[in-house]
Amino acid sequence: MSLIGEIKQATTKAIVHLYGIELLDSAILVNATKPEFEGDYTVVLYAFVKSLKKSPDVLGQELGSFLVANNPQLFVGFNVIKGFLNLSVGDSFWISFLQSQYSNTSYGLSPKNGEKVMVEYSSPNTNKPLHLGHLRNNFLGWSIAEILKANGYEVVKTCIVNDRGIHICKSMIAWQLFANGATPESTGMKGDHFVGEYYVKFNDEYKRQIEELIATTGLTKEVAEKQAPIMLGAQKMLLDWEAGDADVISLWERMNSWVYAGFNATYQSIGSDFDRTYYESKTYLLGKDLVEKGLDNGVFYQKEDSSVWIDLTTDGLDEKIVRRKDGTSVYITQDIGLAVDKYEEYQCSKSIYVVGDEQNYHFKVLKLICQKLGLPSADGIFHLSYGMVELPTGKMKSREGTVVDADDLVAEMVSISQQKTEELGKVKDFAGEDLTELYHTIGLGALKFFLLRVDPKKKMVFNPEESIEFQGFTGPFIQFIHARIKSILRKMSAEGVVVSLFESKEDLLPLEKAIIVELELFPTVIHDAASDYDPSKVAIYIYNLAKTFSSFYSELSIANAESEEKKLLRLQLAQLTAHILKTGMHLLGVGVPERM
What we know:
Blueprint: H1 3-19, E1 30-32, E2 41-44, H2 46-52, H3 56-70, E3 75-81, E4 84-89, H4 91-101, E5 116-120, H5 132-150, E6 154-161, H6 166-178, H7 184-187, H8 191-217, H9 221-227, H10 229-242, H11 246-270, E7 276-279, H12 280-283, H13 288-296, E8 301-302, E9 308-311, E10 319-323, H14 331-346, E11 350-356, H15 360-372, E12 381-386, E13 389-390, H16 406-423, H17 432-452, E14 460-461, H18 464-467, H19 475-494, H20 510-520, H21 522-531, H22 536-555, H23 564-587
Parallel strand pairs: 5-6, 5-11, 6-7, 11-12, 13-14
Antiparallel strand pairs: 1-2, 2-4, 3-4, 8-9, 9-10
Helix pairs in contact: 1-3, 4-20, 4-23, 5-21, 6-8, 6-10, 8-9, 8-11, 16-17, 19-22, 19-23, 20-22, 20-23, 21-22, 22-23
Protein backbone atom coordinates (compact mmCIF):
# COMPACT_ATOMS: atom_id res chain seq x y z
CA MET A 1 0.00 0.00 0.00
CA SER A 2 1.22 3.52 -0.80
CA LEU A 3 1.91 6.00 1.97
CA ILE A 4 -1.10 8.07 0.95
CA GLY A 5 -3.19 4.90 1.18
CA GLU A 6 -1.79 4.22 4.67
CA ILE A 7 -2.60 7.78 5.76
CA LYS A 8 -6.17 7.48 4.47
CA GLN A 9 -6.62 4.14 6.23
CA ALA A 10 -5.16 5.44 9.50
CA THR A 11 -7.42 8.50 9.31
CA THR A 12 -10.61 6.49 8.78
CA LYS A 13 -9.67 4.27 11.76
CA ALA A 14 -9.05 7.36 13.88
CA ILE A 15 -12.46 8.82 12.96
CA VAL A 16 -14.17 5.54 13.85
CA HIS A 17 -12.36 5.37 17.21
CA LEU A 18 -12.85 9.03 18.14
CA TYR A 19 -16.31 9.71 16.76
CA GLY A 20 -17.94 6.37 15.97
CA ILE A 21 -18.46 7.29 12.30
CA GLU A 22 -17.32 4.98 9.50
CA LEU A 23 -16.02 6.50 6.27
CA LEU A 24 -14.57 4.97 3.12
CA ASP A 25 -10.86 5.59 2.59
CA SER A 26 -11.82 7.27 -0.69
CA ALA A 27 -13.67 9.97 1.28
CA ILE A 28 -10.38 11.14 2.79
CA LEU A 29 -8.47 13.69 0.69
CA VAL A 30 -4.71 13.62 1.22
CA ASN A 31 -2.26 15.91 -0.60
CA ALA A 32 1.43 16.66 -0.38
CA THR A 33 1.92 19.49 2.11
CA LYS A 34 2.63 22.84 0.47
CA PRO A 35 6.31 23.84 0.66
CA GLU A 36 5.58 26.91 2.80
CA PHE A 37 4.17 24.76 5.63
CA GLU A 38 5.81 22.25 7.94
CA GLY A 39 4.89 18.64 7.23
CA ASP A 40 4.89 16.03 4.48
CA TYR A 41 1.23 15.16 3.83
CA THR A 42 -1.96 17.10 4.47
CA VAL A 43 -5.39 15.72 5.38
CA VAL A 44 -8.14 18.08 4.18
CA LEU A 45 -10.64 18.40 7.05
CA TYR A 46 -13.48 20.38 5.49
CA ALA A 47 -15.15 17.28 3.98
CA PHE A 48 -16.23 15.99 7.40
CA VAL A 49 -16.32 19.11 9.62
CA LYS A 50 -20.08 19.37 9.23
CA SER A 51 -20.91 15.70 9.83
CA LEU A 52 -18.66 15.52 12.90
CA LYS A 53 -19.91 18.88 14.22
CA LYS A 54 -16.40 20.01 15.09
CA SER A 55 -14.52 23.17 14.24
CA PRO A 56 -11.62 22.56 11.85
CA ASP A 57 -9.03 23.46 14.50
CA VAL A 58 -10.50 21.20 17.16
CA LEU A 59 -10.97 18.34 14.71
CA GLY A 60 -7.40 18.75 13.45
CA GLN A 61 -5.93 18.75 16.95
CA GLU A 62 -7.89 15.66 17.99
CA LEU A 63 -7.14 13.71 14.83
CA GLY A 64 -3.48 14.76 14.76
CA SER A 65 -2.90 13.79 18.39
CA PHE A 66 -4.52 10.39 17.84
CA LEU A 67 -2.64 9.67 14.62
CA VAL A 68 0.78 10.53 16.08
CA ALA A 69 0.13 8.61 19.32
CA ASN A 70 -1.16 5.48 17.58
CA ASN A 71 1.17 5.40 14.55
CA PRO A 72 4.63 6.16 15.99
CA GLN A 73 6.31 4.18 13.20
CA LEU A 74 4.81 6.63 10.71
CA PHE A 75 4.17 10.08 12.18
CA VAL A 76 6.48 12.21 14.31
CA GLY A 77 4.42 15.39 14.53
CA PHE A 78 1.56 17.48 13.17
CA ASN A 79 0.19 21.00 12.89
CA VAL A 80 -3.20 22.42 11.95
CA ILE A 81 -3.61 25.44 9.69
CA LYS A 82 -7.05 26.68 8.60
CA GLY A 83 -8.77 23.34 8.17
CA PHE A 84 -5.71 21.40 7.02
CA LEU A 85 -3.99 18.76 9.13
CA ASN A 86 -0.30 18.67 8.18
CA LEU A 87 1.42 15.42 9.19
CA SER A 88 5.19 14.95 9.45
CA VAL A 89 6.51 11.50 8.53
CA GLY A 90 9.61 10.31 10.36
CA ASP A 91 12.95 9.59 8.72
CA SER A 92 12.70 5.99 9.89
CA PHE A 93 9.74 5.41 7.54
CA TRP A 94 11.53 6.90 4.53
CA ILE A 95 14.75 5.00 5.16
CA SER A 96 12.85 1.74 5.73
CA PHE A 97 11.00 2.30 2.45
CA LEU A 98 14.24 2.88 0.58
CA GLN A 99 15.91 -0.17 2.12
CA SER A 100 13.00 -2.38 1.08
CA GLN A 101 12.69 -1.13 -2.50
CA TYR A 102 16.05 0.12 -3.81
CA SER A 103 16.78 -3.11 -5.71
CA ASN A 104 13.18 -3.78 -6.78
CA THR A 105 13.11 -3.36 -10.57
CA SER A 106 9.33 -4.02 -10.52
CA TYR A 107 8.55 -1.27 -8.02
CA GLY A 108 5.26 0.40 -8.85
CA LEU A 109 3.86 -2.50 -10.90
CA SER A 110 0.75 -4.31 -9.65
CA PRO A 111 0.02 -8.06 -9.71
CA LYS A 112 -2.56 -9.47 -12.13
CA ASN A 113 -6.09 -8.42 -11.18
CA GLY A 114 -7.99 -10.88 -13.39
CA GLU A 115 -9.62 -8.17 -15.55
CA LYS A 116 -9.25 -7.91 -19.32
CA VAL A 117 -9.51 -4.67 -21.27
CA MET A 118 -9.21 -3.82 -24.95
CA VAL A 119 -7.47 -0.73 -26.30
CA GLU A 120 -8.14 0.19 -29.94
CA TYR A 121 -5.84 2.73 -31.55
CA SER A 122 -4.21 3.83 -34.81
CA SER A 123 -7.22 3.22 -37.14
CA PRO A 124 -5.53 4.35 -40.37
CA ASN A 125 -7.00 4.76 -43.84
CA THR A 126 -5.31 2.86 -46.66
CA ASN A 127 -5.30 5.87 -48.97
CA LYS A 128 -2.44 7.70 -47.27
CA PRO A 129 0.55 7.19 -44.97
CA LEU A 130 0.47 7.68 -41.22
CA HIS A 131 0.97 11.30 -40.20
CA LEU A 132 1.61 13.41 -37.09
CA GLY A 133 -1.98 13.00 -35.87
CA HIS A 134 -1.64 9.22 -36.14
CA LEU A 135 1.53 9.42 -34.07
CA ARG A 136 -0.26 11.04 -31.13
CA ASN A 137 -2.97 8.39 -31.48
CA ASN A 138 -0.49 5.49 -31.61
CA PHE A 139 1.66 6.77 -28.77
CA LEU A 140 -1.38 7.48 -26.61
CA GLY A 141 -3.02 4.11 -27.27
CA TRP A 142 0.19 2.12 -26.76
CA SER A 143 1.02 4.00 -23.56
CA ILE A 144 -2.46 3.56 -22.08
CA ALA A 145 -2.22 -0.17 -22.82
CA GLU A 146 1.13 -0.41 -21.01
CA ILE A 147 -0.09 1.67 -18.06
CA LEU A 148 -3.10 -0.61 -17.70
CA LYS A 149 -0.80 -3.65 -17.82
CA ALA A 150 1.28 -2.04 -15.06
CA ASN A 151 -1.90 -1.87 -12.99
CA GLY A 152 -2.52 -5.60 -13.36
CA TYR A 153 -4.90 -5.70 -16.34
CA GLU A 154 -4.65 -8.15 -19.20
CA VAL A 155 -4.69 -5.92 -22.28
CA VAL A 156 -5.68 -6.68 -25.86
CA LYS A 157 -4.28 -4.12 -28.31
CA THR A 158 -6.38 -3.77 -31.46
CA CYS A 159 -6.49 -1.72 -34.63
CA ILE A 160 -9.30 -1.16 -37.14
CA VAL A 161 -8.05 -0.45 -40.65
CA ASN A 162 -10.32 1.66 -42.83
CA ASP A 163 -9.62 -0.15 -46.09
CA ARG A 164 -12.81 0.44 -48.07
CA GLY A 165 -15.00 3.32 -49.17
CA ILE A 166 -14.96 6.26 -51.53
CA HIS A 167 -11.67 7.66 -50.17
CA ILE A 168 -9.90 4.41 -51.04
CA CYS A 169 -11.41 4.44 -54.53
CA LYS A 170 -10.12 7.98 -55.06
CA SER A 171 -6.52 6.76 -54.79
CA MET A 172 -7.33 3.78 -57.01
CA ILE A 173 -8.90 5.80 -59.85
CA ALA A 174 -6.04 8.31 -59.72
CA TRP A 175 -3.50 5.49 -60.00
CA GLN A 176 -5.33 4.16 -63.06
CA LEU A 177 -5.33 7.60 -64.68
CA PHE A 178 -1.84 8.85 -63.86
CA ALA A 179 0.50 6.04 -62.78
CA ASN A 180 1.28 4.43 -66.14
CA GLY A 181 1.84 1.17 -64.29
CA ALA A 182 4.26 2.62 -61.73
CA THR A 183 4.68 0.76 -58.43
CA PRO A 184 6.48 1.40 -55.15
CA GLU A 185 9.24 -0.91 -56.38
CA SER A 186 9.66 0.84 -59.73
CA THR A 187 9.71 4.31 -58.12
CA GLY A 188 11.70 3.40 -55.01
CA MET A 189 8.95 4.81 -52.81
CA LYS A 190 7.54 3.39 -49.60
CA GLY A 191 4.14 1.85 -50.38
CA ASP A 192 1.94 4.06 -48.19
CA HIS A 193 3.66 7.21 -49.43
CA PHE A 194 3.25 6.03 -53.01
CA VAL A 195 -0.52 5.46 -52.66
CA GLY A 196 -0.91 8.69 -50.70
CA GLU A 197 0.47 10.67 -53.62
CA TYR A 198 -2.37 9.45 -55.79
CA TYR A 199 -4.92 10.56 -53.20
CA VAL A 200 -3.45 14.05 -53.51
CA LYS A 201 -3.41 13.74 -57.33
CA PHE A 202 -7.11 12.84 -57.24
CA ASN A 203 -7.92 15.98 -55.31
CA ASP A 204 -5.82 18.17 -57.62
CA GLU A 205 -7.49 16.72 -60.73
CA TYR A 206 -10.93 16.94 -59.11
CA LYS A 207 -10.44 20.66 -58.45
CA ARG A 208 -9.20 21.18 -62.02
CA GLN A 209 -12.21 19.40 -63.52
CA ILE A 210 -14.65 21.37 -61.37
CA GLU A 211 -13.11 24.66 -62.49
CA GLU A 212 -13.19 23.51 -66.14
CA LEU A 213 -16.86 22.49 -65.95
CA ILE A 214 -17.82 25.80 -64.39
CA ALA A 215 -15.85 27.74 -67.01
CA THR A 216 -17.06 25.77 -70.05
CA THR A 217 -20.66 24.90 -69.13
CA GLY A 218 -21.70 27.57 -66.64
CA LEU A 219 -22.64 24.92 -64.05
CA THR A 220 -22.78 25.90 -60.41
CA LYS A 221 -19.95 24.64 -58.22
CA GLU A 222 -22.30 22.26 -56.40
CA VAL A 223 -23.45 20.63 -59.66
CA ALA A 224 -19.92 20.60 -61.11
CA GLU A 225 -18.67 18.76 -58.03
CA LYS A 226 -21.21 16.00 -58.68
CA GLN A 227 -20.52 15.77 -62.42
CA ALA A 228 -16.72 15.84 -62.43
CA PRO A 229 -15.67 12.72 -64.41
CA ILE A 230 -13.01 11.65 -61.89
CA MET A 231 -15.53 11.68 -59.04
CA LEU A 232 -18.05 9.74 -61.10
CA GLY A 233 -15.28 7.22 -61.82
CA ALA A 234 -14.51 6.82 -58.12
CA GLN A 235 -18.18 6.36 -57.28
CA LYS A 236 -18.56 3.70 -59.96
CA MET A 237 -15.45 1.95 -58.69
CA LEU A 238 -16.99 1.79 -55.20
CA LEU A 239 -20.16 0.22 -56.60
CA ASP A 240 -18.06 -2.26 -58.59
CA TRP A 241 -16.09 -3.13 -55.44
CA GLU A 242 -19.28 -3.77 -53.48
CA ALA A 243 -20.53 -5.92 -56.37
CA GLY A 244 -17.31 -7.98 -56.25
CA ASP A 245 -15.93 -6.95 -59.67
CA ALA A 246 -12.79 -9.08 -60.11
CA ASP A 247 -10.61 -6.37 -61.70
CA VAL A 248 -11.51 -3.77 -59.08
CA ILE A 249 -10.97 -6.22 -56.23
CA SER A 250 -7.60 -7.20 -57.68
CA LEU A 251 -6.46 -3.56 -57.91
CA TRP A 252 -7.79 -2.86 -54.40
CA GLU A 253 -5.87 -5.81 -52.94
CA ARG A 254 -2.71 -4.84 -54.79
CA MET A 255 -2.73 -1.20 -53.67
CA ASN A 256 -3.68 -2.12 -50.10
CA SER A 257 -0.76 -4.54 -49.95
CA TRP A 258 1.56 -1.66 -50.79
CA VAL A 259 0.08 0.39 -47.99
CA TYR A 260 0.20 -2.43 -45.43
CA ALA A 261 3.90 -2.97 -46.11
CA GLY A 262 4.45 0.73 -45.52
CA PHE A 263 2.36 0.77 -42.34
CA ASN A 264 4.23 -2.21 -40.93
CA ALA A 265 7.58 -0.52 -41.49
CA THR A 266 6.35 2.61 -39.72
CA TYR A 267 4.87 0.66 -36.81
CA GLN A 268 8.15 -1.18 -36.36
CA SER A 269 10.08 2.07 -36.43
CA ILE A 270 7.89 3.79 -33.81
CA GLY A 271 7.36 0.72 -31.61
CA SER A 272 3.62 0.22 -32.17
CA ASP A 273 2.14 -3.26 -32.12
CA PHE A 274 -1.29 -4.93 -32.06
CA ASP A 275 -2.66 -8.24 -30.86
CA ARG A 276 -5.55 -8.14 -33.33
CA THR A 277 -6.22 -6.12 -36.48
CA TYR A 278 -9.74 -5.68 -37.86
CA TYR A 279 -10.49 -4.54 -41.42
CA GLU A 280 -13.49 -2.45 -42.37
CA SER A 281 -13.84 -4.48 -45.59
CA LYS A 282 -14.70 -7.43 -43.35
CA THR A 283 -16.75 -5.56 -40.74
CA TYR A 284 -18.86 -3.14 -42.77
CA LEU A 285 -21.75 -5.60 -43.05
CA LEU A 286 -21.76 -6.31 -39.31
CA GLY A 287 -24.70 -5.07 -37.29
CA LYS A 288 -27.37 -5.51 -39.96
CA ASP A 289 -29.04 -8.30 -37.99
CA LEU A 290 -29.00 -6.08 -34.88
CA VAL A 291 -31.12 -3.57 -36.77
CA GLU A 292 -33.84 -6.21 -37.11
CA LYS A 293 -33.53 -7.01 -33.43
CA GLY A 294 -33.88 -3.31 -32.60
CA LEU A 295 -36.96 -3.00 -34.78
CA ASP A 296 -38.56 -6.02 -33.10
CA ASN A 297 -38.09 -4.68 -29.58
CA GLY A 298 -38.96 -1.06 -30.40
CA VAL A 299 -35.50 0.46 -30.02
CA PHE A 300 -35.50 1.44 -33.72
CA TYR A 301 -38.30 2.61 -35.95
CA GLN A 302 -38.78 2.57 -39.73
CA LYS A 303 -39.73 5.60 -41.80
CA GLU A 304 -41.98 5.57 -44.88
CA ASP A 305 -38.96 5.45 -47.20
CA SER A 306 -37.88 2.20 -45.44
CA SER A 307 -34.86 3.79 -43.70
CA VAL A 308 -34.40 2.79 -40.05
CA TRP A 309 -33.73 5.27 -37.25
CA ILE A 310 -33.40 5.64 -33.50
CA ASP A 311 -34.81 8.63 -31.61
CA LEU A 312 -32.36 9.82 -28.97
CA THR A 313 -33.89 13.25 -28.37
CA THR A 314 -35.06 12.31 -24.86
CA ASP A 315 -31.42 11.51 -24.09
CA GLY A 316 -30.29 14.98 -25.15
CA LEU A 317 -29.08 13.89 -28.59
CA ASP A 318 -30.99 13.68 -31.90
CA GLU A 319 -32.39 11.13 -34.32
CA LYS A 320 -29.81 8.82 -35.85
CA ILE A 321 -30.10 6.69 -38.98
CA VAL A 322 -28.91 3.07 -38.58
CA ARG A 323 -29.92 1.70 -42.01
CA ARG A 324 -30.40 3.56 -45.28
CA LYS A 325 -33.54 3.22 -47.35
CA ASP A 326 -31.69 0.97 -49.82
CA GLY A 327 -30.91 -1.46 -46.98
CA THR A 328 -27.22 -0.61 -46.62
CA SER A 329 -25.70 -0.01 -43.22
CA VAL A 330 -23.98 3.15 -41.96
CA TYR A 331 -20.84 3.55 -39.86
CA ILE A 332 -22.67 3.45 -36.54
CA THR A 333 -24.30 0.14 -37.54
CA GLN A 334 -21.03 -1.61 -38.29
CA ASP A 335 -19.49 -0.19 -35.11
CA ILE A 336 -22.34 -1.75 -33.12
CA GLY A 337 -21.72 -5.08 -34.82
CA LEU A 338 -17.97 -4.86 -34.32
CA ALA A 339 -18.45 -4.06 -30.61
CA VAL A 340 -20.44 -7.29 -30.30
CA ASP A 341 -17.82 -9.30 -32.22
CA LYS A 342 -15.00 -7.94 -30.06
CA TYR A 343 -16.83 -8.79 -26.86
CA GLU A 344 -17.68 -12.29 -28.00
CA GLU A 345 -14.07 -12.93 -29.05
CA TYR A 346 -12.28 -11.52 -25.99
CA GLN A 347 -14.87 -11.00 -23.20
CA CYS A 348 -13.21 -7.72 -22.16
CA SER A 349 -14.82 -5.80 -19.31
CA LYS A 350 -13.91 -2.50 -20.99
CA SER A 351 -13.27 -1.50 -24.60
CA ILE A 352 -11.30 1.73 -24.93
CA TYR A 353 -11.46 3.57 -28.25
CA VAL A 354 -8.55 6.00 -28.75
CA VAL A 355 -10.09 8.40 -31.25
CA GLY A 356 -9.85 12.18 -31.75
CA ASP A 357 -12.34 14.54 -30.14
CA GLU A 358 -14.10 15.21 -33.47
CA GLN A 359 -15.79 11.83 -32.88
CA ASN A 360 -17.14 12.64 -29.39
CA TYR A 361 -20.75 12.63 -30.57
CA HIS A 362 -20.35 9.39 -32.51
CA PHE A 363 -19.19 7.48 -29.45
CA LYS A 364 -21.93 8.91 -27.25
CA VAL A 365 -24.43 7.58 -29.77
CA LEU A 366 -22.64 4.23 -30.11
CA LYS A 367 -22.64 3.55 -26.37
CA LEU A 368 -26.23 4.70 -25.93
CA ILE A 369 -27.56 2.53 -28.77
CA CYS A 370 -25.66 -0.50 -27.47
CA GLN A 371 -27.13 0.09 -24.01
CA LYS A 372 -30.66 0.39 -25.40
CA LEU A 373 -30.16 -2.86 -27.32
CA GLY A 374 -29.07 -4.51 -24.07
CA LEU A 375 -25.73 -5.64 -25.48
CA PRO A 376 -23.26 -7.07 -22.93
CA SER A 377 -20.50 -4.94 -24.42
CA ALA A 378 -22.38 -1.66 -23.91
CA ASP A 379 -21.34 -0.46 -20.46
CA GLY A 380 -17.67 -1.20 -21.18
CA ILE A 381 -17.49 1.17 -24.16
CA PHE A 382 -15.20 4.10 -23.36
CA HIS A 383 -14.09 6.81 -25.77
CA LEU A 384 -10.61 8.09 -24.92
CA SER A 385 -11.00 11.42 -26.66
CA TYR A 386 -7.92 13.48 -27.44
CA GLY A 387 -7.20 16.85 -29.00
CA MET A 388 -5.66 17.37 -32.40
CA VAL A 389 -1.98 18.09 -32.98
CA GLU A 390 -1.09 21.19 -34.93
CA LEU A 391 2.19 22.55 -36.20
CA PRO A 392 3.41 26.10 -35.53
CA THR A 393 2.16 26.82 -39.07
CA GLY A 394 -1.38 25.58 -38.32
CA LYS A 395 -3.60 22.62 -39.17
CA MET A 396 -2.71 19.85 -41.63
CA LYS A 397 -4.85 18.63 -44.55
CA SER A 398 -4.34 15.19 -46.12
CA ARG A 399 -6.11 15.87 -49.39
CA GLU A 400 -3.97 18.94 -50.02
CA GLY A 401 -0.76 17.12 -49.20
CA THR A 402 0.08 19.44 -46.27
CA VAL A 403 0.29 16.77 -43.58
CA VAL A 404 3.55 15.81 -41.92
CA ASP A 405 4.21 12.16 -42.72
CA ALA A 406 5.13 10.07 -39.69
CA ASP A 407 8.20 8.63 -41.41
CA ASP A 408 9.45 12.06 -42.43
CA LEU A 409 8.93 13.43 -38.94
CA VAL A 410 10.73 10.52 -37.26
CA ALA A 411 13.62 10.94 -39.71
CA GLU A 412 13.75 14.67 -38.94
CA MET A 413 13.76 13.98 -35.19
CA VAL A 414 16.64 11.50 -35.56
CA SER A 415 18.54 14.07 -37.64
CA ILE A 416 18.00 16.80 -35.03
CA SER A 417 19.04 14.31 -32.34
CA GLN A 418 22.31 13.68 -34.17
CA GLN A 419 22.96 17.39 -34.58
CA LYS A 420 22.22 18.28 -30.94
CA THR A 421 24.14 15.31 -29.54
CA GLU A 422 27.22 16.05 -31.64
CA GLU A 423 27.10 19.73 -30.64
CA LEU A 424 27.21 18.67 -26.98
CA GLY A 425 30.15 16.35 -27.69
CA LYS A 426 28.42 13.29 -26.22
CA VAL A 427 29.26 10.74 -28.91
CA LYS A 428 32.98 10.17 -28.57
CA ASP A 429 32.47 6.78 -26.92
CA PHE A 430 30.03 5.55 -29.59
CA ALA A 431 30.53 4.17 -33.09
CA GLY A 432 28.68 2.42 -35.90
CA GLU A 433 25.36 0.76 -35.03
CA ASP A 434 25.52 1.94 -31.41
CA LEU A 435 25.61 5.53 -32.58
CA THR A 436 22.74 5.01 -35.02
CA GLU A 437 20.67 3.39 -32.26
CA LEU A 438 21.46 6.24 -29.86
CA TYR A 439 20.29 8.91 -32.32
CA HIS A 440 17.07 6.96 -32.98
CA THR A 441 16.43 6.42 -29.26
CA ILE A 442 16.89 10.09 -28.45
CA GLY A 443 14.99 11.41 -31.50
CA LEU A 444 12.01 9.08 -31.21
CA GLY A 445 12.01 9.45 -27.42
CA ALA A 446 11.84 13.23 -27.73
CA LEU A 447 8.90 12.94 -30.12
CA LYS A 448 6.94 10.48 -27.95
CA PHE A 449 7.58 12.34 -24.71
CA PHE A 450 6.55 15.69 -26.19
CA LEU A 451 3.29 14.28 -27.57
CA LEU A 452 2.46 12.45 -24.33
CA ARG A 453 3.43 15.09 -21.78
CA VAL A 454 0.21 17.00 -22.53
CA ASP A 455 -3.18 15.97 -21.13
CA PRO A 456 -4.81 13.95 -23.96
CA LYS A 457 -7.96 16.08 -23.85
CA LYS A 458 -6.01 19.20 -24.83
CA LYS A 459 -5.07 20.31 -28.32
CA MET A 460 -1.37 20.87 -28.75
CA VAL A 461 1.23 22.42 -31.02
CA PHE A 462 4.24 20.28 -31.84
CA ASN A 463 7.61 21.96 -32.30
CA PRO A 464 10.41 19.50 -33.22
CA GLU A 465 13.27 21.76 -32.12
CA GLU A 466 11.72 22.46 -28.72
CA SER A 467 11.01 18.77 -28.07
CA ILE A 468 14.62 17.63 -28.34
CA GLU A 469 16.37 20.03 -25.97
CA PHE A 470 18.58 18.37 -23.36
CA GLN A 471 17.30 20.71 -20.65
CA GLY A 472 13.75 21.32 -19.47
CA PHE A 473 10.55 19.30 -19.76
CA THR A 474 11.76 16.94 -22.49
CA GLY A 475 12.50 13.28 -23.08
CA PRO A 476 16.23 13.82 -23.75
CA PHE A 477 16.65 15.52 -20.36
CA ILE A 478 15.23 12.46 -18.58
CA GLN A 479 17.27 10.11 -20.77
CA PHE A 480 20.39 12.09 -19.89
CA ILE A 481 19.69 11.92 -16.13
CA HIS A 482 19.14 8.16 -16.38
CA ALA A 483 22.43 7.72 -18.28
CA ARG A 484 24.23 9.87 -15.72
CA ILE A 485 22.93 7.70 -12.83
CA LYS A 486 23.98 4.52 -14.63
CA SER A 487 27.44 6.02 -15.14
CA ILE A 488 27.67 6.77 -11.40
CA LEU A 489 26.63 3.22 -10.52
CA ARG A 490 29.13 1.72 -12.97
CA LYS A 491 31.92 3.87 -11.55
CA MET A 492 31.10 2.95 -7.96
CA SER A 493 30.89 -0.74 -8.88
CA ALA A 494 34.28 -0.56 -10.61
CA GLU A 495 35.70 0.87 -7.38
CA GLY A 496 34.33 -2.09 -5.45
CA VAL A 497 31.43 -0.28 -3.81
CA VAL A 498 28.39 -2.58 -3.55
CA VAL A 499 24.90 -1.13 -3.12
CA SER A 500 23.61 -2.99 -0.08
CA LEU A 501 21.56 -2.82 3.10
CA PHE A 502 22.96 -0.92 6.07
CA GLU A 503 21.91 0.13 9.56
CA SER A 504 20.83 3.75 9.47
CA LYS A 505 21.91 6.08 12.27
CA GLU A 506 22.05 9.46 10.54
CA ASP A 507 19.18 11.85 9.83
CA LEU A 508 18.13 12.52 6.26
CA LEU A 509 19.23 15.76 4.66
CA PRO A 510 16.41 17.75 2.97
CA LEU A 511 17.49 16.81 -0.59
CA GLU A 512 17.83 13.15 0.37
CA LYS A 513 14.34 13.15 1.84
CA ALA A 514 12.95 15.04 -1.18
CA ILE A 515 14.14 12.27 -3.50
CA ILE A 516 12.73 9.47 -1.33
CA VAL A 517 9.35 11.23 -1.06
CA GLU A 518 9.22 11.46 -4.87
CA LEU A 519 10.21 7.80 -5.29
CA GLU A 520 7.49 6.56 -2.93
CA LEU A 521 4.81 8.26 -5.04
CA PHE A 522 5.45 6.15 -8.17
CA PRO A 523 2.76 3.44 -7.61
CA THR A 524 0.17 6.15 -6.90
CA VAL A 525 1.10 7.97 -10.11
CA ILE A 526 0.75 4.79 -12.20
CA HIS A 527 -2.63 4.09 -10.59
CA ASP A 528 -3.87 7.65 -11.24
CA ALA A 529 -2.62 7.58 -14.84
CA ALA A 530 -4.67 4.40 -15.44
CA SER A 531 -7.77 5.74 -13.68
CA ASP A 532 -7.72 8.94 -15.76
CA TYR A 533 -6.34 7.34 -18.96
CA ASP A 534 -3.70 10.04 -18.91
CA PRO A 535 -0.02 9.24 -19.64
CA SER A 536 0.89 12.89 -19.02
CA LYS A 537 0.71 12.13 -15.29
CA VAL A 538 3.61 9.69 -15.73
CA ALA A 539 5.52 12.14 -17.95
CA ILE A 540 5.16 14.99 -15.42
CA TYR A 541 6.15 12.72 -12.54
CA ILE A 542 9.31 11.31 -14.09
CA TYR A 543 10.38 14.78 -15.24
CA ASN A 544 10.00 16.10 -11.68
CA LEU A 545 11.89 13.08 -10.35
CA ALA A 546 14.72 13.64 -12.84
CA LYS A 547 14.82 17.34 -11.95
CA THR A 548 14.90 16.58 -8.21
CA PHE A 549 17.74 14.09 -8.71
CA SER A 550 19.67 16.65 -10.76
CA SER A 551 19.39 19.14 -7.88
CA PHE A 552 20.34 16.45 -5.37
CA TYR A 553 23.40 15.36 -7.34
CA SER A 554 24.64 18.90 -7.90
CA GLU A 555 24.56 19.58 -4.14
CA LEU A 556 25.46 16.25 -2.53
CA SER A 557 28.37 14.02 -3.52
CA ILE A 558 27.94 10.27 -3.74
CA ALA A 559 31.54 9.19 -4.25
CA ASN A 560 32.84 11.61 -1.61
CA ALA A 561 29.92 11.39 0.82
CA GLU A 562 30.47 12.46 4.43
CA SER A 563 30.29 8.86 5.66
CA GLU A 564 30.05 5.32 4.36
CA GLU A 565 26.42 5.24 5.47
CA LYS A 566 25.63 8.34 3.43
CA LYS A 567 27.42 6.89 0.41
CA LEU A 568 25.31 3.71 0.58
CA LEU A 569 22.10 5.69 1.15
CA ARG A 570 22.74 7.90 -1.87
CA LEU A 571 23.65 4.93 -4.02
CA GLN A 572 20.34 3.32 -3.06
CA LEU A 573 18.59 6.58 -3.98
CA ALA A 574 20.38 6.65 -7.33
CA GLN A 575 19.62 3.01 -8.10
CA LEU A 576 15.90 3.24 -7.35
CA THR A 577 15.67 6.54 -9.25
CA ALA A 578 17.19 4.86 -12.32
CA HIS A 579 14.75 1.93 -12.03
CA ILE A 580 11.76 4.26 -11.85
CA LEU A 581 12.93 6.53 -14.67
CA LYS A 582 13.38 3.47 -16.88
CA THR A 583 9.98 2.00 -15.94
CA GLY A 584 8.19 5.34 -16.28
CA MET A 585 9.73 6.05 -19.67
CA HIS A 586 8.84 2.52 -20.83
CA LEU A 587 5.20 3.24 -19.96
CA LEU A 588 5.45 6.11 -22.44
CA GLY A 589 7.15 3.90 -25.03
CA VAL A 590 10.47 5.71 -24.60
CA GLY A 591 13.80 3.94 -24.29
CA VAL A 592 16.53 5.16 -21.94
CA PRO A 593 20.18 4.67 -22.93
CA GLU A 594 22.63 3.21 -20.44
CA ARG A 595 25.10 5.85 -21.55
CA MET A 596 24.97 9.11 -23.50
